[in-house]
C-alpha cells in the first residue's frame, strides 16, 4: 500500500525524479559517459520515467520483469557501465526512502514496515536488470568476437579488438606495442587515445621499461590503477596524462610478440579488473596474437614467393614493382634508369652435358658474381631459367649504362669445367634506358628482351641497346661502338701531331700525339666524336698500347734524325689503372733504343690524376725511374692544388685553354695564370700553355716567363709526314 501512496505522492514529480536519475548517471563519469545524440538522451529519460511509473503502480507480473530486463539491455546498448547502474539504484534507494519516511510521518504509520517492501523490490529490480545487462554484454561480446575473427586486415583487426578491450575494461584507449630489433618496444597502432598520446606513434623504448616492459619480461598481465605513483611510471607517459595502465602480453607460437596496452586518462581506473572481464580480455589478446603471427607468416610467404630459391635473388614477381619504383626515382632525381636483360649463352649444353647439378652451381655462381660486380644502387634478379635482370639506377649518362653492360658481359664470360670437359659460358644482354624508352614496366621489359635477342643473333657475348625510341643519336652511337670494336684490327686509327714551340726564341721544341679515326664511311673523325665512347670500352687498353707504340716509334725515328723533340702522349683513365702499363712501357723502350727517354712525356688529365693520388704518384715514380716525364694536362680546370703537385711529383703542367684564352681581357684570369706560372717556377715544373691563338696572348705568356706553348697561332694538328717536313 505504501508503494501506491508513494506513487500517488510522487506522480507530479516523476519527470523531475527521472531527470534527477539521468543527471546522477551523468555525474558518475568524467566526461559524462552518456549518448551524445539528443534523441537517444530523450529516449533514456522517457524510459526512466516510464520505469518509475511502473515501479510504483505495478502490477509486478511478467511484463514488469520483462521491463527490468529490457532496461538492463538498453543500458548496455547506450554503453552505460554496470557500476553506474548500481550507483543509480543506491541514489534511488536514498531518495525514495526519504520520501517514504515523509509519507509515513504524515500518515502516522510505521516507516520501517513500509520501506522494507520498497527496498526488496528495488533489490529485485537491480538483480534482474544487472543479470540482463551481463547476459546482453556476454552475448554482444561473443558476437563481437565471432565478427572479430572474420577480420583479416591487421590494422582493422586491432581497432576492433581494442574497442572491445576498452569496453571490457571500461578504459579510454589502447595501443599495440611490438618488439623490434635491439630489444625495443615500439608503438604500432593506437585506438581511442588522446592527441598527446599520438605523438608516440612509432616511438620505441627498451623492452624492460614501464608496465608493458614488465608484462613482457614476466609473461603475465600488469595492472596499475595509479600509474603516476607506480614503480613502472615513465615520465613521457605521465606527462601525456596517463592515469592507469593495463599491459597484457601477446602470445604467439614462437614466444611473446608484443603487448596490448589499455589506458585510462579521463576515466577513473578501477581498483581492480573484475575477474569475469579477464577471460574476454585474454581471449581478445590471444586473437590479436594469432593475427600478428599470421602477418609474420604472410611476410615470410611473400618473401618466399618473391625470392628465387636457388640463387637467393628476387624473382620475376617483383619485376613490375621494382621497375615502376626505379622509373619514379629517375624522374625525381632527374637521371636515367637502365634495365639490362641477360640471357646466358651456352647454358643449355652445360646443363645437358655436365649435368643439372653443375648447371645449378653455375647459376648460383653467376648470381653471386653479378651481385659482386654491381654498383651499390643497382640490383639483380633472376627472371627465369637462365635469364637475369639488372636494374641500374641513378645513371647520369648513357656511357654509365654501357659500362655496366660491358662489366656484366665480362663478369659472366667464363669456362665451365667438369672433369676433362670444358664448355664456354657468356651472356647476351639487351639494354633499355628510361626515359628515352618510355612506356609501362611491361613494355620496358619487352624492349630490353628484344634487344637481348638482337645481341644473341649478333653472336652473343655482347650487349645491345633497344634503339627504336631512343633516337638517331643513340643509334649512331651504337654504330660507332660497333665500328670502334673493329677499327684497331682494320688499321683505321691515325696519329696527328701538334707542334709545341718555345716562345723566345721561337722554334719547335716538341709535339703532342693526337688520336684520329679514319672511319671507312664518315671520314676523318676527331677525338670529340668518338673518344668518350672509346674510353668506356675495354678496347681502350689495346688502343692505348697502339698509341704509345706508334708515338714512340715515330719519336725514335725523329730522334735518330737529330730532332730532339719532346713527344707528349695522352693516357686515358683506364690506362693509368692498367697494371700491365709499366711492363708495356719497358718493352716499348727496349724495342726503340734510339728513343731519348728523357724527351718522352706522358700526359694525364688533372681530374683523372686526382682520383687516387697515392696510386697515381706510385705510377709516376715508377715511370721516372725509366727516365720518363709526367705532365698534368688541362691544369687549372680541376681541383689540383700545390700539395697535389708536390705529392704527385709531376715534371710539368699544361695550362688549359680555358684559363689562357680569357686572360687578355680578364685581370682575374691574368693574375691566376701568373700565380700558376710563378708556382711552377718555384717547384722547377715545366710549363706548356695550350690554346694560344693570337700574338697578344703569346706576348703575355712570354712576359710571364712561360717558355713553351701550343695552339693554332703556331700550327694546327697535322699528319706525320707534314710534321716531319716542318722539322726539316
TrEMBL record:
Transmembrane segments: none annotated. Residues 477-728 form the EAL domain. Pfam families: EAL, GGDEF, Protoglobin. Gene3D superfamilies: 3.30.450.40, 3.30.70.270, EAL domain, Globins. InterPro entries: Biofilm_reg_signaling, EAL_dom, EAL_sf, GAF, GAF-like_dom_sf, GGDEF_dom, Globin-like_sf, Globin-sensor_dom. GO terms for molecular function: catalytic activity; heme binding; oxygen binding. Residues 335-468 form the GGDEF domain. This is Diguanylate cyclase DosC.
